[in-house]
Design brief:
The protein is 37% helix and 13% strand. It has 265 residues and is an alpha/beta fold. The protein has a domain of 115 residues. The strands form two sheets. The chain has a six-stranded parallel sheet with strand order 2-1-3-4-7-8, sandwiched between helices. It has a two-stranded antiparallel ribbon with strand order 5-6. Helix 5 packs antiparallel against helix 6.
């Protein structure tokens, strides 16, 4: 009997790794071997992460990529990589490096080469980008900022509950790196989009997302036009940045499973 295929879930900024737990359980029930490790220096629980914000200060994109690459190297087989927001960008980088069997990038942070910068995205990133001194700090969102950036497509009550359950301080450095990517020759937000030997990639977008607007994900999809590897885009109408953790998460998870099965993974 074949060993279950590993799956590595990678979260983005302002959410704790444990926010993937419903996905982990669903994928395990589907026959996979999933894990959801945190970013470098991330505490094991939401409460501890809130108390130890400085532990993650100054962590950059490549720090996180190297962290996950080291973990992947210990697995018995190339994993399926599933990331949300900056976790989506990390998923794209790792897949481009040939470190995964397939990748699913959900509302992925913008990579080098993506030009659209909608006003909603600027506002969502302002808590970190609004102060240059934040480059070396960990930043927390207020409940109102979370409502705009994550929970705008759900009720106020649900948004507030998600905020209390899952949010943690996160390093601001990745946001500065992504914002400056098109002006930096060797940006850490660069992805090998021309790799023709990588595994299949699915980009998922919520059309009501403020933090990574749909136009940004569609522009990311176009960056892969020079690769013959499988690259597909799936849009979820009316969904915001909270689509991996809100009451509709299972629709996105099931679509991901269906896509993987369709590619024999």
């Amino acid at each position: 009997m074949a060993e279950p295929r590993p799956v590595v879930f990678i979260h983005g900024l302002w959410l704790h790794a444990s926010s993937w737990q419903p996905w982990v359980e669903k994928f395990r029930e589907a026959g996979y071997d999933p894990v959801a490790p945190g970013w470098p220096h991330e505490a094991d629980t939401v409460a501890e992460a809130r108390e130890r914000a400085d532990d993650v200060a100054n962590v950059g994109i490549d720090d996180a990529v190297d962290h996950y690459a080291a973990l992947i190297a210990t697995l018995p087989a190339p994993p399926i990589l599933i990331g949300h927001s900056f976790g989506g960008l990390i998923t794209e980088k790792l897949l481009g490096q040939g470190r995964g069997a397939a990748g699913i990038a959900i509302d992925p942070a913008q990579i080098k080469g993506v030009l659209p910068l909608p006003l909603a995205q600027l506002r969502a990133g302002f808590p970190a980008l609004g102060n240059p001194a934040n480059l070396h700090k960990a930043v927390s969102l207020t409940k109102e900022q979370f409502r705009f950036g994550f929970g705008n497509a759900v009720s106020q009550e649900e948004s507030d509950a998600l905020y209390e359950q899952w949010t943690i301080p996160s390093p601001a450095r990745p946001l500065f790196q992504a914002a400056a990517a098109n002006f930096v020759m060797h940006s850490q937000a660069a992805v090998d989009t021309k790799n023709t030997d990588r595994g299949p990639l699915l980009l998922i977008s919520g059309t009501a997302d403020h933090t990574v607007p749909d136009v940004v994900t569609r522009s990311t999809f176009k960056q892969y036009r020079d690769s013959t590897a499988v690259t597909e885009l799936r849009q979820f109408e009316g969904r915001g940045h909270s689509l991996t953790i809100d009451s509709g998460w299972e629709d996105v998870a099931q679509a991901s499973l269906t896509w993987l099965l369709g590619h024999g993974l």
